[in-house]
Amino acid sequence: MTRRDILTAVPTSFHADGSLDLEGSRSIFRYVAQSGNEGAFVLGTTGEFPAIDDAEFAQLVEAALADLGDAMRVVVHVGAPSAFEAVRRVHRARELGATEFAAVTPYYLPASDDALLRYYDTLSDAVGEGSLYVYAYPARTGNPVSPELLGRLAERTNIVGVKASELSLEEIAAYRAAVPDEFVIYTGADRDLVAAGGVGAQGVVSGVSSVLPKPFRALAAAADSGDSDRVAAAQADVDDIVSVIGGDMPRMKAAYRAMGVADGHCRMALDEPSADALSEIDRVIAAHR
Q1: pTM listed for this prediction
Q2: What is the pLDDT of residues 114-161, one digit of tens each?
Q3: What is the rounded CA–CA span in Å between residue 63 and residue 10?
Q4: 205 belongs to an annotated ligand binding site
Q5: Per-residue pLDDT tens digits for 172-211
Q6: Which stretch of DSSP H or E encloses residue 57?
Q7: Can 253 be counted among the known catalytic residues?
Q8: What is the chain's Cα-based Rg?
Q9: Where exactly are the structural domains of the chain?
C-alpha cells in the first residue's frame, strides 16, 4: 500500500497583545492529538517560528511533546539563518526529549550549495541518533535545495527526508529521482496528498488539517480504496477547505475561535480575515468538522 502520511503543521497561539498564549497553544496541541494523523510538525512556518524566542521555543517544545507525543510523531522545526542558532535549538529540543527534527535552509542571505551542505552537516552532527528533515521553501528563504544537493544530503544516515513547500509536482518528481526509495518526501501543499503521492511523495505536511482533519483522513482512505469516485468526492472536500483556509494562519486561528478550541491570534504582521472570509470559515466548519 502506498504510504500517505499526514503530518499536521500546528499553529502557535498568541494573545491579542502578541504575548505567547501557552495554554491556548496546548489546547491546539490537544485538539490535533485527536486527529488520527500520523504526526505533528511544530514551530514551522505555520507555527510562526521566526517570531519565537529561545525561552518560548523551549516552552512550546516541552508542551508539544507532552500533549502530542503519546498520540503521534512530533517533528520539531529548528531551522534558523545560521547553523549556530539552529544547533542551539537542536540541543534544547533534544534535552526535552525530541528525536525528530526539521530545518529550513538558512534565509535572508543567499547561500551556495556548498554552504547549505555545511549547514546541514553541522545540524546532522547535532541531531546525532535522531532524524533530520531538510525543509526546502525557496519562495520564502530565497535558497533552493537542488535535486543534486538533496541527493548528497540523503547520503547522511540521519538525514531521512525533505519537506518541499511551494514546489511543483515536477520538482517533487525530480527530488524522487535524486534520492533513495527510503528517503521520505513530504509535500507542503495541503491539497496534494494524492497528486504528490503519484510522483513519489510519501505524504503531506498540512496546516489546514490542524483545523479540519477529517476530510484529509477521508482522502487518504479513499486513495487507499482505489475507488476513483470516492477519491474525487474526498478531494473536492479537501479543495473546499483549502480554498477557504489555505496556509493563512489568521484564518486557522479564527476557525479555532469559532470551534472553541483556542482564542488565539497571530504575532506576525498578517491580515485578519474579512467578514466574508469569516462567514466562509463558519461554512466549512459546519460542513466538514
Answers
A1: 0.97
A2: 999 999 999 999 999 999 999 999 999 999 999 999 999 999 999 999
A3: 12
A4: yes
A5: 999 999 999 999 999 999 999 999 999 999 999 999 999 9
A6: helix 54-68
A7: no
A8: 18
A9: 5-211
